[in-house]
Write a structure and sequence with these properties.
Blueprint (H helix, E strand, L loop, with lengths): L3 H7 L4 H22 L3 E8 L7 H16 L2 H6 L3 E5 L7 H14 L6 E8 L1 H14 L7 H6 L11 E4 L18 E4 L9 H13 L7
Helix pairs in contact: 1-2, 2-3
The structure holds farnesyl diphosphate (FPP).
Length: 215
């Protein structure tokens, strides 16, 4: 969900206003994916690297997340949406961690769209944690399935399509293991401007790709 800051700068607004606008796009995108019958949507909301941004911006983003994830739970419940938070929760204070876990728990038996929010997420950090957990569990003959089981995404399918908005053409530590065979789609559209037509365009292009999985 890249480009919130630039969207705000173009309008001479504070960066937090861009994140607020980005949150509206987040809500609309969840709704569109739900209606389009997509099984799993993962949004990259906050990376482990994002903790290094200035205190005011981090505080603003976290406040928005709190409002949109935690207060949004009854709405997600109505839509039968399941929630998974993917990320390193050790960065959060006890209260936020508990609130996020509680949101996940309330929605865990839903059977519609699975909404994954990558929050305090870094792909390398995820793999590092998985390696430590595998060692601690004394696993032998570690195969690819074993690694997948120890990632935050355990039990979820690998992504088919990864969309990056905002014009940059890099992965930025997102789902490194899981995206081995994902199709990438890059668009210059800034995240707050990414609407349902943009989403449908990305899906249509995905439909034209030939996936050979190296064969
Ligand atoms: C990247 O834009 C965006 C973020 C670091 C934060 C994304 C957060 C939201 C959209 C808030 C809502 C999320 C949820 C799950 C409710 P940027 O700040 O890097 O933009 P720039 O590249 O233009 O500076």
């Amino acid at each position: 969900m890249d480009g919130n800051g630039r969207w705000a700068s173009k309008r001479a607004l504070p960066r937090t206003a861009g994140h607020k606008a980005g949150s509206e796009t987040f809500v609309k995108t969840v709704d569109a994916c739900d209606r389009l019958g997509i099984e799993v949507l993962t949004v990259y909301a906050f990376s482990t690297e994002n903790w290094q941004r200035d205190k005011e911006e981090v505080g603003g983003i976290l406040k928005i997340m709190h409002a949109y994830i935690i207060k949004y739970v009854p709405e997600l419940m109505k839509k039968n949406i399941r929630l998974r938070i993917l990320g390193d929760m050790s960065y959060f204070d006890e209260e936020s961690r508990k609130a996020l876990e509680e949101s996940e728990r309330k929605l865990q038996n839903n059977t519609g769209l699975t909404l994954c929010v990558a929050l305090s997420y870094g792909g390398r950090n995820e793999i590092r944690q998985a390696v430590n957990a595998i060692i601690a569990a004394g696993e032998k003959d570690v195969d690819e399935e074993t690694v997948s089981r120890y990632l935050y995404t355990a039990g979820l399918p690998d992504p088919d399509l990864v969309i990056r908005t905002g014009g940059e053409k890099r992965i930025s530590n997102f789902l490194l293991w899981q995206s081995a065979y994902a199709e990438y789609y890059f668009t210059d559209t800034l995240w707050p401007d990414f609407d349902e037509d943009c989403l449908k365009e990305a899906i249509a292009e995905f439909g034209n790709r030939k996936r050979r999985y190296g064969k």
